[in-house]
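Allow me, if you will, to draw on your knowledge of protein folds for a short while. I have a record of one protein: its chain in single-letter code and its fold written as discrete structure tokens. Could you please explain, in whatever detail you think fit, how the structure tokens follow from the sequence? The record follows directly beneath this note:
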Amino acid sequence: MAEKLVAVKGMNDILPPDSARWEWLEDKVRQLMARYAYRNIRTPIVEPTPLFVRGLGEVTDIVEKEMYSFEDRLNGEALTLRPENTAGVVRAVSEHSMLYEGGKRLYYMGPMFRHERPQRGRYRQFHQIGAEALGFAGAEVDAELILLADALWQELGIKDVRLELNSLGEPDERKLHRAALIAYFEANIETLDEEAKRRLHSNPLRLLDSKNPAMQPLLEAAPKLMDFLGQASLDHFNNVKAILDANGLAYRINPRLVRGMDYYNLTVFEFVTDSLGAQGTICGGGRYDYLIEQIGGKRAPAVGWALGVERVLELLKEHGVEVPQPVPDVYAIITDAATMPQVMPVLQQLRSAGVKVQMHAGAGLVMGSMKSQFKKADTSGARYALIFGEAELAEQSVALKPLRGEKLDSAQAQQLKLLADVASWAQLLLA
């Protein structure tokens, strides 16, 4: 016997009925994005490796440790399975000159890949939904995107989420803060762990994101970037806060919020929860006005966010949010496989009229007993059974039986004529 093959560790199959929860979430997102005038974009799963090295930063965890990178065997090109999609969206917008006629509001859904230790809500193939607004410099678009994410939580029935907010200012302001951080940490070098020491001079801002308990008092007392911001950066941040305040959206200023990518400037934010343990961040983003230029395009402002689909679905479970499962409207019970040439055209017409029909399938020419078919009809969740029995077919009719305790009036109780207008069937079955 051949060796049984299984999925790659950390890359999961999504099976029914669980896949219905994914479809439900995706439908909610599509409807919400349309209300905010965001349009769908789909980019390749495989991108040139330099796109992420330049865009995310060489000393980020993603680039240093987590990317699935390989060399194309045909031409030697360095390629990477996308670990996130903002860089890919920016590459596509730049490559196709999409900002030539003005700003664009875009959203995406799809799989991302990082070589991490699999754990709850954190997998090697994971899925993100993201929204990106490119070509807009105003604080009002930062606020709009934050409000868009908050509207999604309300739409999904998620309440245990809080917003954390910060500003990273502009590059020249971060240089001053960087120098102050290095001096501060050098003066307390004995408290730093090995990872912090390694990053001290290459990316000191990332030290603020450390989860090492022994370093927390030191990090809390570290110089705050907010103290180094100029008036323009402060005005931008204050305008974002003013719009959020006007919409009644509560937030907490978190001076240690720096995000995991190097491309951010000005506004950064995260939506976090206490319900998922260590994987508490379910959505994060911010402004990235220099990313397009970093990957070779013409400089343009941009802001966006991404959420982790697996984490949101876990949170829905924690909140006990019921996601409806798809069920057929009718289950077709067929007593004799030889009658299929008569039965199938009727089922096809019903489906064309919008009725969801599940057809009973037997084993070869054996369809199974009426009792077993009714049991499967009940299990399917269908409201009605359509019974194509020998007696009914002989009379060119079909019997209709409610499966959910409904009662039919005298007109509905009459057998439906096979040769009658199928559209009238559909109205009855969908009522």
Q: What stands out?
A: The two ends are 52 Å apart (CA to CA). Residues 18-169+229-318 form a domain with the BirA Bifunctional Protein; domain 2 fold (CATH 3.30.930.10).
